[in-house]
Write a structure and sequence with these properties.
It is built from ten helices and eleven strands. The protein is an alpha+beta fold and about 450 residues long. The relative contact order is 0.10.
Length: about 450
């Protein structure tokens, strides 16, 4: 029986290829049927029901958000004036935001690769649509033919033998083509499932980072409220700092001016100098005892001075933002000069944290640097961070390693000094020792396990 033989050899060999292939061939037919179906002028009961369900879901979401806000306010209120707990919450939440931001970046990169692969497979299948049609047509024709009766006439036996010889040459080729198409279709189905899973996880991570960012904003506001209650003249100090910044032309002059003329900055510089002497003495004692500092020395969240001398923190400090390094210390700055710091390309809205324990001696706009933070780390070391859109700390404030201090905008705020694409957020970081820019490379942690989280 010819037809059953062909069906067994071809249809069974492709393991459902014709079904998968038919879905591609039937897509255009389904679209045509959809296009020709008349649309109902009146709104159907199902549509009304769906809208009611969407409205109810929106109300539930709003109620849930309000309850979450109330719970958050209650949690923060319970912290009271406990600086240690507030610091703990700030640093932990900022670390969570940074971690989820990294996961989102990785997921977006994976999705980009997967989408590219899917497009390649679609293009490949589309280019061989005629091949798919030919294979399916051959299967259909083979299935419709009536098999000859072998026991009626001798000529039928001869015809059957000739048919078998012909099929012996044709069937292997059809089987190979069908198996290849089936494999590609199966891979495409699996790829779509992977993409759907990645998108679901990405949506979940984005929801989580929004929740953490809301919490972080509330914690930062509470920290600054407590700071303001301790420093009654903060507004006047900030205004005076901006006025002084307009009187100087370079960063070294700005640092000297702030730490000499501004009360809060002067106090911060004095505390930094005292703390540096103590930290250096402790570092010398540890060196004599061959004790190498590690991330554990930063665990005390109630400290009001640096845990160790800045010079002893080499290899321990985290970058202040998630991003890609686009310019390194000592390289070309793009305008014929030499880069005095490092430049990190970031995502819009990224959280910026302090790379070290330090005092804020300047917070505000400065010439082509945009929003600028100058941090005194003690021992003659200063850290400059520029390019943020919003700064959330005040002059004179002591901040811990990993504590949130600013956030990036949606465009570059320092394009004029970096000669970069103004549409890309860029953070500029510079380390200085006694007024001279130095290579920050030795201070950065080489892996996640060595990074300080406060």
């Amino acid at each position: 029986m010819r037809a059953p033989i062909i069906n067994l050899l071809l249809i069974a060999s492709v393991s459902g290829t014709s079904v998968l292939g038919s879905s591609i061939l039937g897509a255009s037919l389904a679209q045509a049927q959809t296009a020709t179906t008349p649309q109902t002028a009146a709104v159907s009961p199902d549509a009304i029901k769906q809208r009611e369900q969407e409205l109810e879901a929106a109300r539930a979401s709003k109620k849930s958000a309000e309850e979450a806000q109330a719970k958050l306010k209650s949690e923060i209120s319970s912290l009271g004036q406990d600086r240690t707990q507030l610091n703990q919450q700030l640093i932990d939440t900022a670390a969570n935001v940074r971690t989820v931001e990294t996961k989102i970046d990785e997921a977006e990169a994976r999705l980009k690769t997967l989408n590219s692969r899917e497009q390649q497979m679609r293009t490949s299948l589309d280019s061989r649509r005629a091949d798919i049609i030919e294979v399916l047509a051959a299967l259909q024709r083979a299935g419709r033919r009536t098999p000859p009766a072998l026991l009626v006439r001798p000529e039928d036996a001869l015809q059957s033998l000739r048919t078998a010889m012909l099929l012996g040459a044709v069937v292997p080729e059809l089987r190979g083509r069908a198996e290849k198409i089936a494999g590609e279709l199966g891979e495409l189905v699996a790829l779509r499932k992977t993409i759907a899973t990645e998108r679901d996880q990405l949506a979940s991570d984005r929801d989580k980072v929004r929740t953490d960012q809301t919490r972080l904003t509330a914690l930062v506001d509470e920290r600054q409220r407590q700071q303001a209650s301790r420093e009654k003249d903060l507004d006047a100090e900030n205004s005076r700092a901006i006025a002084l910044s307009r009187q100087v032309g370079d960063l070294q002059g700005l640092i000297a001016k702030m730490e000499q003329d501004l009360q809060s900055a002067a106090k911060a510089a004095e505390k930094a100098a005292e703390a540096a002497k103590q930290a250096e003495a402790k570092a010398a004692a540890n060196a004599a005892a061959s004790v190498k500092p590690g991330p554990g020395v930063f665990k005390d969240r109630s400290r009001t001075t640096p845990a160790i001398a800045f010079a002893s923190a080499k290899g321990l400090l985290p970058l202040p933002v998630n991003g890609n390094k686009i310019r390194d210390f000592g390289g070309s700055d793009g305008v014929g000069g030499v880069q005095k710091g490092i430049s990190l390309a970031t995502k819009p809205g990224s959280q910026v944290t302090t790379p070290c324990d330090c005092w804020v001696v300047y917070s505000g706009p400065f010439r082509s640097y945009g929003q600028l933070l100058i941090l005194n780390a003690g021992g003659g070391y200063h850290v400059l961070i520029a390019g943020m859109e919003r700064i959330s700390v005040n002059i004179g404030q002591f901040v811990l390693t990993g504590e949130p201090v600013a956030s990036m905008g949606s465009t570059s705020q320092v394009a004029s000094i970096l000669a970069t694409n103004a549409s890309q957020p860029v953070l500029y970081v510079e380390f200085r020792k006694d007024g001279t820019p130095i290579d920050p490379g030795p201070w950065w942690a080489t892996n996640e396990g060595e990074k300080v989280r406060g």
